[in-house]
Amino acid sequence: MTLPGLAARSLLNRRASVALTVATIAIAIALLVLVEQMRLQLREGFYRSVSGTDLIVGAPTSPVQLLLFSVFGIGNPSANLDYSRYLELAADPLVEWAVPIALGDGYHGYRVVGTSEAMFRHYRYAGGQSLQFASGSGFDDLFDAVIGAAAAHRIGLAPGDSIVLSHGGGNVSLHRHEAQPFTIRGVLAATGTPVDQAIYIRIDAHHAVHIGWDRGMPEPARMLGPDQARALAAADQQHQDAEHAHEAAVHADDDPVTDRAAGDTSKPDPDAHDLATPPPPGIGLEPSQVSAVLLGLKTRAAALGLQYRLNQQRERPLLAILPGLALQQLWRITGLAEQILRVVSGLVVLAGLMGMLTALLASLAERRREMAILRACGARPWQVAWLLLVEAGLLTALGIAAGLLLAFAAQLALAPWLLNQFGIALSPAWPAAWQWLVLGGIWACGLLVALLPAVMVYRRSLADGMQIRS
Amino acid sequence: MSPTSVHHRDRSSRPPALEIIDLGYSWPGETGAVLRGLSLTLNVGERLFLAGPSGSGKSTLLALIGGLTGAEHGSIRIAGTALEPLSGAARDRVRADHVGVIFQQFNLLPWLDAVSNVRLGCSFSAERRRRASALDGTLGSAAARLLEAMQLPRERWSQRASALSVGEQQRVAAARALIGGPSLLLADEPTSALDSDRRDAFLDLLFAEAEHAGSAILFVSHDRALRGRFDRALELAAIQTPDART
User: Fold this and answer.
1) Chain B interface mutation, best of A466, A469, A470, highest count of B Cβ atoms under 10 Å
2) Domain for residue B99, yes or no?
3) Residues A112 and A186 reside in one and the same domain
4) Chain B residues near residue A376 by CB distance under 8 angstroms
5) What tens digit of pLDDT does each residue of B157-201 get?
6) Is A286 a domain residue?
7) A interface test, pick of B92, B118, B183 with most A CB neighbours within 10 Å
8) Rounded to a whole number, what is the distance in Å from the CA of A28 to chain B's nearest CA?
């Protein structure tokens, strides 16, 4: 029988205490691996969501705040941007596409985003993937809604269903937009990004339902009925079409990009049919504000220049951020907490190894007899001590293996929760190469810790010889 | 028992299994020697009964012969190899290669089955493994033959040692000490835990297998009733210089 074989049999004999020791190490390892995996996966998940967006523009605030509320639905904008700024951005020659984001409403705890058809056509995630419809289609009617995969699944909504939005994003809201129900028109395919957790409506519809809410309270007398709103929207559309027809006539080669903006700066006229007549002043559905604008540029290289130009505007300041850089800033903020978590999980691993040391030391007394028997069979003292090291090596290796499995299972278990909370899709992963190095180091530490009992055994078996002292 | 194995043919040409000349030892820090001027020769295959009351230095003598303790004075040769010039590790190797040990009790690793306990006797010596294979074909068949010879029922072979009776444990211990045909079998009161019927049966089996393996037996006991069964019987005090114990 070889020494590792003997060690394994000896461990098997003490399987109850061995199982406890392995479990202690496993939990410690799982924590360590989990902290690291979650950190990496979260970062990757966040990056997936913004990887197709070149710039995010909003009212001046902190870059991290703008990033979090505009893309991830975390927090709220402290200020909005004039809608005209969105139109200017959309018209900028460097800009390929612009997606407006208007926040403020919710449905069953999911946020409602006022946006344009451009969202479905141009938003990119995870290295260039575009949004797909799992069922239904994009906006048709003013009060149409498109819902993300997870939200649709959780609430149980399908195309054709009618929903009444809550004013304010929370789960419980005092006020609801009862007068203007929305109809689900499309359900998006799952993306593993916060898109799955949102409900999209037209930005002019977003504006329409908020008419008469100026003081944060509904004033029914001033509110628009759905049909009134539709009439206004139709007028907007006609006006816009006319503009595009005009544009198309001027730039014969240009493709009309209808989704660049929901309207222009001029006020629409419900009855305007004559293009030459400027629209009369009055209430239109053109939104007054947007919370943020997502931009895709014609060339990615232009992002830095445009960001600089936008951020330099002194008279009407706004904030343009590069999503990747803003994420880096976010990670710098969370870095300290991550560091603390790492230290804590490192200490837990240390505690696990100490637990193993305790178990090994406790077993020495009952093993004195076995050592004498081994010595009588010709074992050298170092071989008897080696047996302990092999045991410790096996225990630590088992603990690490079990810990990895535990971490994997925990990732599987946590994935739905994270998806629900942050819209971040986790794909459970095994540790990367450098993490294996860390695990190897922990294994070596296990051996190092076992040196103490091994040395004790060496000296004892030298002194005891084959005399059995029990 | 007629000589059957190859070991017996050239018995006369082989060095004695054990040769002790003028051995002296005292515990560190103590005046008064435990052993003084002890001389003893055990020929190949010879069975020697060594009697001594407890506290007479039996354990010390066994530790010295086993090479676990270095002698202070005099010399010990195991199958022709002198232990004194050797390092501790080299003495361990001589023990592994040439000496089988049976204790009074607690002979076996309780968590190993009977067969594995027997094979343990070869675990630390390539020489013993080689001899066991030469004698019985393979290590497994050597262990099986010994357990068979020791009359351990086959269904007990895979039992953990802790599940065996004391008598069964002693027979497994004897098989372990004999596997791979050691030159010398050290037996330290191996029968004291057995009743007299079992004791006689155990000695029969032990002698037969020692004969087969060509192992000399140094049987240390205070139970002088057994001495008649051995080739020779000696008192521990009688083979030392007279003032060894005061």
Assistant:
1) A466
2) yes
3) yes
4) 66, 95, 101, 103
5) 999 998 999 889 999 999 999 999 999 999 988 888 888 888 888
6) yes
7) B92
8) 30
Q: How many Cβ atoms from other residues are within 10 Å of residue A266's Cβ?
A: 14
Check which CATH number belongs to the domain holding B197 and give it: 3.40.50.300
Split into its structural domains, chain A has a count of 2
**B63 at A interface, C-beta within 8 A:** yes
Q: Which pair of structure tokens corresponds to residue B42?
A: 């055990």
Contacts of A380 in chain B (CB under 8 A): 88-89, 92-93, 124
pTM for this model (two decimals): 0.74
Same domain, A364 and A303: no
Q: Do A380 and B107 touch (CB under 8 A)?
A: no
pLDDT tens for each residue of A204-252: 888 888 887 766 667 777 777 788 788 887 777 777 777 667 666 665 5
pLDDT per residue, tens digit, chain A (470 aa), is 688 888 888 888 888 989 999 999 999 999 999 888 888 888 888 888 888 899 999 999 999 999 999 998 888 888 899 999 999 999 999 999 999 999 988 888 889 999 999 999 999 888 788 999 999 998 988 899 999 998 998 899 999 999 998 887 555 556 788 778 899 999 999 888 889 889 999 998 888 888 877 666 677 777 777 887 888 877 777 777 776 676 666 655 444 444 444 444 444 444 434 444 434 334 567 888 899 999 999 998 899 999 999 999 888 899 999 999 999 999 998 889 989 999 999 999 999 999 999 999 988 888 888 888 898 888 888 998 998 999 999 999 999 999 999 999 998 998 888 777 667 777 788 888 888 999 999 999 999 999 999 999 898 888 777 776 54
DSSP string, chain B: ----SHHHHTGGGSPPSEEEEEEEE--TT-SS-SEEEEEEEE-TT-EEEEE--TTSSHHHHHHHHTTSS--SEEEEEETTEESTTS-HHHHHHHHHHHEEEE-SS--S-TTSBHHHHHHHTTTT-HHHHHHHHHHHSSHHHHHHHHHHHTT--GGGTTSBGGGS-HHHHHHHHHHHHHTT--SEEEEESTTTTS-HHHHHHHHHHHHHHHHHHT-EEEEEES-GGGGGGSSEEEEGGGGS-GGG--
Number of domains in chain B: 1
Regarding whether A183 and A80 lie in a shared domain, the answer is yes
Residue B30 lies in a domain: yes
Task: Assess whether A400 and A376 both reside in one domain.
Answer: yes
What is the Cα–Cα distance from B168 to B189, expressed in whole angstroms?
16
The answer to whether residues A274 and A154 belong to one domain is: yes
**Domain range enclosing A73:** 55-321
Which residue, of A264, A298, A321, is where some domain finishes?
Answer: A321
- A341 and A315 within one domain: no
| Nearest alpha carbon to residue A311 among A321, A319, A303 | A319
Count of beta carbons in the 10 Å neighbourhood of residue B113: 20
Residue A326 counted as domain residue: no
Q: Tell me the nearest-neighbour CA distance from B113 into chain A, angstroms.
A: 10
Maximum distance among all Cα pairs of chain A, rounded to whole angstroms: 114
Q: Quick one: A215 and A303 in the same domain?
A: yes
Distance from CA of A379 to the nearest CA of B (A): 6
> Is there a contact between A1 and B124 if contact means CB atoms under 8 Å apart?
no
Query: Is residue A290 included in any domain, yes or no?
Result: yes
**B131 interface with A at CB cutoff 8 Å:** no
Residue with tokens 């009161």: B189
Looking at CA atoms only, how far is residue B119 from chain A in angstroms? 7
On whether both A295 and A165 belong to a single domain, the answer is yes
- Minimal-distance CA residue of chain A relative to B67: A465
